[in-house]
Amino acid sequence: MNAKKADKIATGVLYTIAGIIIAILASLILYILVRGVPHISIDFLTKPSKSFQAGGGIGIQLFNSFYLLIITMLISIPISLGAGIYLSEYARKNWFTNVVRTSIEVLSSLPSVVVGLFGFLVFVIQAGLGFSIISGALALTFFNLPLLTRNVEESLKTVHFTQREAGLALGLSRWETVTRVVIPEALPGILTGVILGAGRIFGEAAALIYTAGQSAPALDFSNWNPLSITSPLNIFRQAETLAVHIWKVNSEGNMPDGAQVSAGASAVLIIAVLLFNFLARFIGKRLHKKITSA
């Protein structure tokens, strides 16, 4: 067998494997959407859920998912940005940075249920925060921080060293070069990673079962006092998210239309995660074009 024939066979095998994987993933997504989209409506997206009656929605769970996502990103983005800048621009190659990078790799590969149990022991019990939004956000910060940090570091490393030298040659300090030259150039990659991380958080369930809780108390959307128990902005209340709600409905749901609620909620979750991915690609491409054309 000559080299060209072997190359064609190997290429064909790889294309076949890739096509099978894509077909499996596409069929799963289509199956969830076909079953769930017919059950999605304005009432379904806005009404609160019901435990023993039919006709409930996912309004509170959907709000909880977005609110917890915002709190988590407000905590994790500044920390990951600082850590990524340090590792990319300032850290020297020694045992300390090797330990930091190894720790990031280990944390990024931890199962989410382990992060949830860690959050339960540390934040829910030891810190006395109980099952709450802040406990879930802190646990998800540990879950998302390694990936965001690595994304920031890799995005900064893609900026060519000549741009750093140009900034220093113009009389800018090292910090000014990083903030005015390097970060703007790496911004498309950083934002793409942040949005993809947000999609990962939005669909997380295992870590939140042990930290944010499994109940969705009634909320008064006319009361925006963050210290009030019924306020949507209260970070110390329990908050069942959309992913946790899907798990709960399928495991212990008592509503007569549980299958329809689960299918509709799953479709909403899939659509939201797909939107996060498409948004990341769109923003990344637009920013990259804007920077290269400037």
Plain-language structure description:
- The chain starts with a helix and ends with a helix.
- The chain has eleven helices and no strands.
- It has one domain: MetI-like (MetI-like fold), CATH 1.10.3720.
- With 294 residues, the protein is mainly alpha-helical.
- α3 (59-90) runs parallel beside α6 (133-157), α5 packs across α6 and α7 (161-169) crosses α8.
- The model has no long low-confidence stretch (mean pLDDT 87).
Feature tags:
73% helix; MetI-like fold; 11 helices; 294 residues; mainly alpha; cell membrane; 0% strand
- CATH homologous superfamily descriptor: MetI-like
Task: Give the domain tally.
Answer: 1
Figure out the total of helices.
11
**What name does the CATH topology carry?**
MetI-like fold
Share of residues in helices: over 70%
Order of helices and strands: HHHHHHHHHHH
Question: Poorly predicted ranges (pLDDT <50, ≥5 residues)?
Answer: none
Membrane topology: Multi-pass membrane protein
Keywords: Cell membrane, Membrane, Transmembrane, Transmembrane helix, Transport
GO molecular function: phosphate transmembrane transporter activity
Organism: Vagococcus silagei
Q: What's the short story on this structure?
A:
With 294 residues, this protein is mainly alpha-helical. The chain has helices at residues 3-36, 42-46, 59-90, 95-108, 112-126, 133-157, 161-169, 174-202, 206-209, 242-252, 258-293.
List the helices and strands and how they pair.
Layout (H helix, E strand, L loop, with lengths): L2 H34 L5 H5 L12 H32 L4 H14 L3 H15 L6 H25 L3 H9 L4 H29 L3 H4 L32 H11 L5 H36 L1
